[in-house]
Write a structure and sequence with these properties.
This protein is α+β, with helices and mostly antiparallel strands and 133 residues long. It has 5 helices and 3 strands.
Length: 133
């Protein structure tokens, strides 16, 4: 019988040419870490952008309220976080480098979808949704 160890964890047991893996195997961990990192990067970038914008224009936003543009950017950041899920599936099939590429390819699609939803259904005479007040 052969026991395979990885950082003091048993990841596989082999006997007579038959192998059985345990739940402690590190397979899939880089893809999950990359997906979580991608989602946190999107959230962090939006929070930094929105916070900086609100601090820079605090007086104006206090008088007029927050602009719709921040809502659109927030929804786009949430869409970017959701794009990490299909990218993780690609990463499971191919590896982490292609997972990152898949996530970066999906980002423009998420942005397009959010902008299209925000601009649709507002009527012909409505103010543009992306205009800063």
């Amino acid at each position: 019988m052969t026991v395979t160890l990885w950082q003091d964890y048993v990841v596989a047991v082999t006997k007579d040419g038959r192998s059985q893996e345990t739940a402690d195997t590190p397979l899939g961990e880089p893809q999950l870490a990359t997906a979580v990192g991608s989602a946190l990067l999107s959230a962090g970038a939006f929070i930094a952008y929105a916070g900086g914008r609100v601090l820079a224009r605090a007086r104006r936003y206090g008088q007029r309220g927050l602009p719709r543009l921040l809502v659109v950017h927030g929804r786009t950041a949430f869409g970017a976080m959701l794009c990490a899920v299909p990218a993780m599936i690609v990463g499971d099939l191919t590896g982490v480098p292609l997972q990152v590429v898949a996530w970066l390819v999906l980002l423009p699609a998420a942005r397009w979808f959010v902008r299209r939803r925000e601009l649709r259904g507002r009527g012909r005479h409505a103010a543009p949704a992306l205009q800063d007040r």
